[in-house]
Design a protein that fits this description.
seven-stranded mixed sheet; four-stranded antiparallel sheet; 19 helices; about 40% helix; globular
């Protein structure tokens, strides 16, 4: 391909990308494919002869796009945001064109120095103390592949420091600590570092407290173990809860003189998602209150700062700890200026490094801090709008608080109900969400992820959730109120079931449905699951899709009389047809 052909196809590709991004609403959220769908459509061997760009692009459109989960869809509410914007795409394009491998200043001077500048920009924007900035000459920021990589790098540095401090030859006595709600990457890092990990119980606000941490550390010291690393999470994956950083810092400060050899425990802050919000002054106290004992912290700009993956931002208070742990200096990597500037190959695991700072530089300059703050505040506002809708419906309960763009909730009752609800919603293709487990609760996570999500999308999402909740709860009550011993072959053949209800001799048909629950005990068959969490008024008003409890709607549910135990036969298909008469979305 020559320059002219590149110009031609490059312009076509930009048009293709813009059309795809602007038309994302018309795409399915999750593809209707099964494992192996693409493997069977592509050749088993690479092509021997060159193929045209037109053919390749056509295959992207016909084969690749249909198998994509569309993270930028306005109804994608799973995981956390996957940052994206046109300035970031342009920055990625320029990075690819420059084609450098920035492992040292000599290998790519602009790559190294732009990373220094951008990381100091962001560090100042989130209010970090000067110790964490390159301009201090002590600490600084570095772009890693992800928050998981930053956690591993910080734990490796902490372990290396502990080996030197305690003159260890083995890591068997070293102990790291985190909350039970910390990300799984902490557990993986501990496994890779071959150290013990204490996953501690969070408090009533779902955060790790300093007192809980202090007690665990004191016990381990008594057992002749060596505490060396704590990972505090600001914005957990499950519910975006925050560990109590001020009390954790106080606890670590008070423990410094407990043993003959100073403990010098490394405190890392994992704030992969929520840390992006610290560019907004109103959120900075969540980090700065308690930062005195923090050694390192990170967040993923590729989550919430409109920047494409990968772009993990990590800061360290004393860079010498990273360099002491991770430096390998063969002759072919040495250069004349290596003592005058940062060589970021010594701040992380890989030698080869991408020019990640370029796309971040594009984004920060194009949007400005005010534009990025506006983006974050808008998504927080949308999450709070969703929270208000959730809190008005007494069938649901929220787990945790809405502090950022994530709302975690469940149906009241057993976990199976919420699990069924999420399955039905995801299978419908109308929304996509994922679950989490919090203190034995199966919760559904609703995260505002897309830059194109609007007020109407939030309202529609709530209507979808509410509608499917009506069906799940209706199915549950039908199942629980069924009287298997009273079914005849004729009943089974006509899909007709017996429901216990109040004697309708006075013609109060509108009482029939709510009394399915109230008078169940008159049949002598106890519920398999108690429904005491739901009042009769809630059931009558909400259970069979809001207005179904009105007299006019229930007149169509014609019961037959003279059944044993004062029960009424209601045809299941009649109920379900009534449920399907209206859809609020």
């Amino acid at each position: 391909m020559d320059a002219e052909e590149f110009r031609k196809h490059g312009k076509e590709m930009i048009d293709f990308i813009a059309d795809h991004v602007e038309g994302i609403r018309q795409q399915p959220i999750v593809p209707n494919v099964k494992p192996g769908f693409l493997i069977t459509k592509l050749p088993s061997r690479a092509p021997t002869e060159p193929e045209s760009i037109e053919k390749i692009t056509n295959d992207v459109e016909q084969l690749i796009i249909p198998g994509m989960t569309n993270w930028q869809h306005p109804n994608f509410h799973a995981y956390f945001p996957a940052g994206n914007s046109y300035p970031s795409i342009l920055g990625e394009l320029m990075e690819s064109a420059l084609g450098c491998i920035g492992f040292s200043w000599a290998a790519a001077p602009s790559c190294t120095e732009l990373e220094i500048v951008v990381m100091d920009w962001l560090g100042k924007a989130i209010g970090l103390p000067e110790d964490f900035l390159h301009c201090s000459g002590k600490g600084g920021g570095v772009l890693q592949g992800s928050a998981s990589e930053s956690v591993l790098v910080s734990m490796l540095a902490a372990r290396h420091r502990a080996f030197k401090t305690h003159r260890l030859s083995s890591s068997t006595r070293l102990v790291a600590y985190c909350s039970m709600l910390a990300h799984s990457c902490v557990e993986k890092a501990a496994s890779l570092c071959n150290v013990r990990l204490r996953q501690l119980e969070p408090d009533a606000d779902f955060g790790l407290s300093g007192e809980t941490l202090r007690q665990a550390i004191e016990k381990d010291i008594h057992d002749n173990l060596i505490p060396f690393f704590v990972c505090a999470t600001l914005g957990t994956t499950s519910i975006c809860s925050f560990d109590n950083l001020p009390s954790i810092s106080d606890a670590l400060s008070s423990l410094k003189g407990m043993s003959e050899t100073p403990l010098n425990i490394w405190l890392h802050v994992d704030s992969a998602y929520a840390g992006n919000a610290f560019i907004c002054p109103e959120f900075q106290h969540l980090l700065l209150d308690g930062i005195e004992e923090v050694d390192s912290l990170e967040f993923n700009a590729n989550k919430w700062l409109l920047t494409n993956f990968d772009c993990g931002c990590m800061w360290v208070r004393d860079r010498l700890h990273l360099e002491d742990c991770l430096s390998v200096d063969p002759l072919y990597l040495k250069h004349d200026h290596q003592h005058l500037t940062a060589d970021f190959r010594n701040w992380g695991i890989p030698l080869s490094r991408r020019f990640r700072s370029l796309k971040l530089w594009f984004v920060i300059r194009r949007f400005g801090l005010t534009g990025l703050q506006k983006h974050i505040r808008e998504q927080v506002r949308l999450a709070k709008k969703f929270t208000k809708l959730l809190q008005k419906d007494t069938r649901f309960e929220q787990i945790g608080k809405t502090r950022m763009g994530l709302v975690s909730f469940k149906l009241k009752g057993e976990n199976e109900l919420s699990e069924r609800l999420l399955g039905v919603i995801n299978n419908s293709g109308q929304l996509f969400m994922v679950p989490a487990k919090v203190k034995h609760n199966y919760v559904i996570r609703f995260c505002v992820c897309s830059t194109s999500t609007t007020n109407s999308d939030i309202e529609r999402a709530w209507n979808v959730i509410s509608y499917h909740a009506d069906h799940v709860l209706a199915d549950e009550i039908i199942e629980m109120t069924l009287c298997p011993g009273e079914l005849s072959p004729a009943d089974l053949a006509t899909n007709s079931f017996l429901f216990p209800c109040k004697d309708n001799s006075q013609g109060d048909e509108h009482e029939a449905v709510p009394d399915l629950i109230r008078s169940r005990s008159t049949v002598g068959q106890p519920f398999r699951r108690p429904f005491r969490r739901y009042s009769t008024s809630e059931l009558s008003h909400r259970l069979l899709y809001r207005s179904i409890s009105s007299a006019a709607r229930l007149q169509s549910l014609t019961p037959t009389s003279n059944t044993p135990h004062k029960t009424t036969q209601l045809r299941l298909d009649t109920i379900l047809n009534a449920l399907k008469k209206e859809r609020p979305f």
